[in-house]
Specification:
two-stranded antiparallel ribbon, 8 helices, 2 strands, globular
Length: 217
């Protein structure tokens, strides 16, 4: 029955002639998976930048700079803060502790990689410096591979278990915390605002139109 009520949205209940907040409009798992969808699109931008470092064409730093800014603001400062809440819940229940240890370590390594890429991009000679472009290429590849595995394990071995280890009330509180933090950091419809920025980068790189990835059969 838990899962049914997660998607009912805002349900007012009468108690002493007052309206009581019952549940948020979106479940915690749905929020986390939505955020992972945005992360996936950032990884595609990283991949396009990675492929660009392998060509003889001039390296355009602007799309990667913008993607890193979103990675820091939305993924590191919002999404991963929420994941820390989730990790703590699992640790208190002594569930998936070994997995969480690795996931937390990967968050820290990802932040280190991001910092190194930013330092390289700040170098004015990066566009024509083959050695530094190779360094960026290696860092991007490490990030893409690690976070592809990272989110796949979270999506399949962690997030679905929230329904089993949390009460309905706890799930509602977590969902409200996610919603409140997103609004605090990004305003109303924050996700859509960030998504539009991602789409703009995709268009800049020429990777937005998904029809180009549909094979001819």
């Amino acid at each position: 029955m838990k899962r049914i009520f997660l998607f009912l949205g805002l349900l007012p209940a009468l108690s002493n002639n007052a309206l009581i907040y019952c549940a948020p409009a979106i479940s915690p798992v749905e929020s986390l998976l939505k955020e992972h969808g945005l992360l996936e699109r950032l990884l595609l931008i990283y991949k396009a930048s990675f492929e660009q470092t392998k060509t003889l064409a001039p390296f355009h730093t602007d799309p990667l700079r913008k993607a890193i800014e979103i990675m820091e603001q939305y993924i590191e400062n919002f999404h991963e803060k929420i994941e820390e809440e989730v990790f703590s819940i699992f640790e208190k229940k002594n569930v998936q502790v070994a997995l969480i240890k690795q996931l937390r370590m990967q968050h820290l390594i990802a932040q280190q990689i991001t910092k190194l890429i930013k330092e390289l991009l700040d170098n004015e000679t990066i566009v024509r410096n083959v050695k530094k472009l190779q360094e960026i290429s290696q860092l991007l590849q490490m990030f893409i591979v690690m976070y592809g595995v990272h989110e796949a394990h979270e999506n399949t071995e962690l997030f679905p278990l929230l329904y089993d280890i949390m009460t309905q009330g706890e799930i509602n509180k977590l969902a409200k915390k996610i919603d409140d933090l997103e609004k605090k950091l990004f305003g109303t419809n924050g996700f859509m605002k960030v998504l539009q920025k991602v789409i703009a980068i995709e268009k800049q790189l020429g990777i937005y139109d998904i029809s180009q990835y549909t094979p001819s059969m």
